[in-house]
Amino acid sequence: MADDGGNGDGATAGDCYAHHHRRDIKLAGDSSENLDSISSLPDVILQQILSYLPTKLSIRTSVLSTRWRHVWYDTPSLYFDGPGTFYRGLKADTLNKTLARYKLPKIMSFHLYTNMLDNVPYIDGWIEFAISRNVENLSLDLGESNGRGFHSIPEFIYTSSSVKQLSLRHCHLIPRCAVSWTSLKNLSLHTCSLSDELFAKTLCGFPFLESLKLFYVINLMVIDLSKSLRLKTLEIYSYFEPGPMHIVAPHIHSLKLTKSKFSSTLVDVSSLTEATVEAIPDVDFCMRNQPTNLQVMTLKMLEKLQNVEKLTFGANFLKLLSIAKVHGVSFPMFKAKALTVETTMYEHCVTPGVVSVLQNAPELKWLTLVHIMDSGSGFIQKDDLLYNLDPRDQHCRCWVFERTFSLKTKHVASFLKIILKNTKTLEKMVVRLKDYLEEKCFEELLQIVPSLSLDNNISIVLS
Question: Domain F-box: where (predicted)?
Fold first, then answer.
């Protein structure tokens, strides 16, 4: 990077762009002063625009003209990331020069992504720079430093009073001091290491937390949020945990369990109004080694969700519900007014789980059906389903085996008819087919929908 934010490549590209831009303006027959309306904007507006770009691109605007030379110095956000970073790397000397030229005393957002081993000695200094400028939105993705392992977050970050949004990825959280994030409202931890003991300890340090996202948080098995009175949103993506996760969150309103083990226990979610649940293909724990426990876990999970007004069930979760239903589990009555289900929309793939949920939701007004092609490593496979079913049972065989990758009009129409047959209070149904239905078939389905709507007195929307 050359002085004032330019480098050889950037200056050449910028000069070239500026030259052609000025030439186009002249060909238009007007003066550049009249047409270059962007440059005439106040600095504060230009800086706000630049804050939406990676900092590397913001710096390159300095070669456009003398008007733009120092504009980037006071952008409220710094974003050190971009296409190709993983391979070309973020060079320490370049970033150090950039920070040395930065003038604004306060940073609104600071995003840093680096995984280069050579940058490890500088990482804490870069974070300290952001903290010293009272950053409000701090996002750190520290990679694995080419096999070195997660980077331990420096102690001074745990006492920042300015941070309102914090996102940490590939980090060790081992606070030795008392955590004091008194302004923190949104926390996201992704591929981080944090024990149950430390998690409980750190929670006391951010009493105003409103949203918590946990993705692949290693070693965390107990999530006790009973003292987080302001927390309203919890999202968990927990594929790697070695056993069942226990969730105590009596104050949250929204819960999203994605790729979580079906064995996870909802201890207390008594204030829940919205929930999304999807399971991983956890067949070793739930289905093969302890099949009888599946029924118990199913009932416990559904009991915790029966008062939720807005529900979303993923494809794997519905399959596990179906297995439990076939084995005699009685579902509780649901108070859901809106339900979204992800499933395969074929006549013979209306699983017992879907039907039972619909039949036990007497207040349901809005149903959203999302078609998916449930094949691949992310879905429960046929053999694992068959292990828990009687292959002689024709009803069980039909929703396990009869699949086709070609979605046709008749498939969707038959599916919708069966769904409508099992709903009594529905007012609107949204059917999301994405790109799985050919245009011709989609047009045919549009001709069928009006009669389905009229016969069942509901509104049907295709998308």
Answer: 35-90
262 neighbors 244 (Cβ within 8 angstroms): no
CA distance 23 to 17: 10
Count of Cβ atoms closer than 10 Å to residue 72 Cβ: 26
Instruction: Read off the CATH number of the domain in which 356 is found.
Output: 3.80.10
Task: State pLDDT tens for residues 389-423.
Answer: 554 454 444 444 444 456 778 878 888 888 898 99
Q: Is residue 122 part of a domain?
A: no
Work out how many domains the chain is built from and give that number: 1
Contact predicate 109/134, CB 8 Å: no
Partners of 218 in beta bridges:
193
Closest CA relative to residue 129, chosen from 169, 89, 97, 85:
97
152 inside domain: no
Residue with tokens 């009973």: 226
Strands (E), 154-243: 165-169, 171-172, 186-190, 211-215, 222-224, 233-237
**Nearest 5°: CA angle at 334, between 332 and 340?**
120
Domain annotation covers residue 170: no
Q: Which residues of the chain have pLDDT under 70?
A: 1-36, 43, 47, 50-52, 55-74, 82-90, 144-149, 239-243, 259-263, 280-295, 346-350, 374-406
Residue 447: CB partners within 8 Å, gap ≥ 6? none
Residue 401 has a pLDDT of: 40
Question: What one-letter code names the amino acid at 164?
Answer: K
Q: What is the pLDDT of residue 386?
A: 47
